[in-house]
């Protein structure tokens, strides 16, 4: 049990990222990267080859813990993020999930309300290997490193469950929601409840904070964003805090810049994750100074390296000089990113003085 994230008042944290989530500014921002454990690391590719499938890898505590720790050992990031996938939730809800090599996830699509109603409750037993992974990582993580858990937001997870795969516009889920909003609401509600259960279990297993990924939030029109993204995420945060009152939560509604003001006012997250397209000047003018922000270097700038990378990093550091900020990418690190570019990024961020 993690005393800082259960039912005790938050302590004054010696972990820089937790301190920022609590509203403190640091001389240089803490740094971690989305998808920091993965294919750009040779040590990851070596152990990934030992598992029959990606899902098998996620459900192997030994492999998943090692993958979680590899970027911490190499770069000393301020946070380790649990190695897993957002689609373990549909898997634990009884939907068949497989990962096809080179093609991504495949699920048995939910095509009608009856299929949604027939989904069983979330199986925490199915997710037991994830909690064992958390236990293993916690035992090996440096004392100053924050441990992040995560889940996918209901809208993003539902889009895969309905279509049976990812797509550029998530048309299948959007059509379902327009044609049968009551049926789609049943699925969203199931995912809200499942996400609360899953995140609380992660806190109880030992994570310090969590991130909710709504990777497809930005494709929703305003009214649909309200119903399918903002409201469910707000319910998850409220539900988690009822059981884990001092839970620190980062929300990442990717592509939802026009909704950020309302999101900050209502969702109740400790920090707002920003995506690549966000203009820091817009954030300064529209997002209150007391809101902690996270982001948002273009992964392609990191891939490019050199002056382009250095200039882009300096611009972000300078833009958030006066507010609590966690340095990150605006989306996940690209598999072909050179390791020395990541090392240069960490050095530049660590040498910045606000």
Summarize the structure.
With 354 residues, the protein is of the alpha/beta class. Helix content is 48%, strand content 12%.
Helix-strand layout with pairing:
Blueprint: H1 16-21, H2 42-48, H3 54-58, H4 61-75, E1 79-81, H5 88-92, E2 97-100, E3 104-107, H6 113-117, H7 128-140, E4 146-152, H8 154-163, H9 171-179, H10 181-205, E5 209-214, H11 222-243, E6 248-253, H12 260-266, E7 271-273, H13 280-286, E8 292-297, H14 299-304, H15 306-319, E9 325-329, H16 339-351
Parallel strand pairs: 1-4, 4-5, 5-6, 6-7, 7-8, 8-9
Antiparallel strand pairs: 2-3
Helix pairs in contact: 2-4, 4-7, 8-9, 8-10, 9-10, 10-11, 15-16
Description:
The protein has 354 residues and is an alpha/beta fold. Helices cover 48% and strands 12% of the residues. The protein is built from 16 helices and 9 strands. The protein has helices spanning 16-21, 42-48, 54-58, 61-75, 88-92, 113-117, 128-140, 154-163, 171-179, 181-205, 222-243, 260-266, 280-286, 299-304, 306-319, 339-351; strands at residues 79-81, 97-100, 104-107, 146-152, 209-214, 248-253, 271-273, 292-297, 325-329. Strands 1-4-5-6-7-8-9 form a 7-stranded parallel β-sheet. α4 packs parallel to α7 (128-140) and α10 runs parallel beside α11. It is globular and about 55 Å long.
Task: Compute the number of strand runs.
Answer: 9
Distance between the termini: 35 Å
Question: Which value, in Å, is the CA radius of gyration?
Answer: 19 Å
Shape: globular
Helix content: 40-55%
SS summary, helix count = 16
H/E order of the elements?
Answer: HHHHEHEEHHEHHHEHEHEHEHHEH
Structural class by secondary-structure content: alpha/beta
Average pLDDT confidence is 94
Arrangement of strands in the largest sheet: 1-4-5-6-7-8-9
Low-confidence stretches: 1-9
Q: Give the biggest beta sheet.
A: 7 strands, parallel
Give the DSSP E fraction (strand runs of 2 or more residues): 5-15%
């Amino acid at each position: 049990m993690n005393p800082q994230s259960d039912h005790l008042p938050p302590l004054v944290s010696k972990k820089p990222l937790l301190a920022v989530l609590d509203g403190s500014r640091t001389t240089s921002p803490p740094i971690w990267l989305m998808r920091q454990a993965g294919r750009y690391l040779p040590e990851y590719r070596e152990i990934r080859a030992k598992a029959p499938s990606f899902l098998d890898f996620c459900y192997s505590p030994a492999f998943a813990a090692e993958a979680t720790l590899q970027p911490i050992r190499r770069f000393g990031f301020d946070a380790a993020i649990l190695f897993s996938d957002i689609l373990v939730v549909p898997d634990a809800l009884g939907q068949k999930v497989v990962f096809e090599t080179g093609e991504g996830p495949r699920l048995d699509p939910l095509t009608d309300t009856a299929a949604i109603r027939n989904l069983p409750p979330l199986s925490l037993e199915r997710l037991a290997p994830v909690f064992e992974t958390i236990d293993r990582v916690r035992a090996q993580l440096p004392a100053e490193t924050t441990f992040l858990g995560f889940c996918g937001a209901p809208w993003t997870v539902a889009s895969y469950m309905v279509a049976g795969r990812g797509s550029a516009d998530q048309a299948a889920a959007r059509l379902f929601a327009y044609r049968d909003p009551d049926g789609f609401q049943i699925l969203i509600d199931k995912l809200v409840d499942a996400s609360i259960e899953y995140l609380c279990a992660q806190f109880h297993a030992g994570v310090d904070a969590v991130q909710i990924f709504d990777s497809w939030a930005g494709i929703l029109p305003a009214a649909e964003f309200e119903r399918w993204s903002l409201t469910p995420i707000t319910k998850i945060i409220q539900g988690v805090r009822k059981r884990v009152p001092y839970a620190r939560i980062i929300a990442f509604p990717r592509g939802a810049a026009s909704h950020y003001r309302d999101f900050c006012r209502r969702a109740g997250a400790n920090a707002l994750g920003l995506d690549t397209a966000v203009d820091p000047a817009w954030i300064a003018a529209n997002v209150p100074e007391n809101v902690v922000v996270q982001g948002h270097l273009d992964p392609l700038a990191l891939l490019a390296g050199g002056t382009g990378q250095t200039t882009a990093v300096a611009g972000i550091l300078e833009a958030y000089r006066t507010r609590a900020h966690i340095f990150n990418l605006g989306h996940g690190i690209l598999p072909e990113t050179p390791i020395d570019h990541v090392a240069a990024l960490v050095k530049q961020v660590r040498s910045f003085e606000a």
